[in-house]
Model the fold of this input.
Amino acid sequence: MNIHSYLNFNGQAEEAMHFYQKTLGGEFEGGFNYFSEIPGMDQLSEDEKKRVMHVTLMLSDQVKIMASDIMPSMGHKLIVGNHNYISLMPDSIEKGREYFQGLSEGGTVEMPYEKAFWGAYFGSFIDKYGNGWMINYTLKEGEE
Done:
């Protein structure tokens, strides 16, 4: 079984996913799909026609971040909260630092990326789009 994060945005899905790709890499699986592509959606405002219906950023076969924009005309409301974090487990301290610095740009750092008492380098932040991230690199034997 694979578990993938699915993020909702209020008209910022395309911008946010490009921002995530800039730091994490990966490819967009199938590109961006927009609400304007759905048959019978001619009544949508120009803003809502440009909103992302679905996109998948494929980081590996097992790791994907999916996203879409909400549709206010359909009664959708975006409620940003602290109930959801994306937790990344990088392959090195340096890669963790790179992810932390890149993705926290413009956001709010909750815990800086530094050595933690449980034998890892850890940091958490809320990115500039309101999404929570945790970066945790577990130290290997002999690493400081």
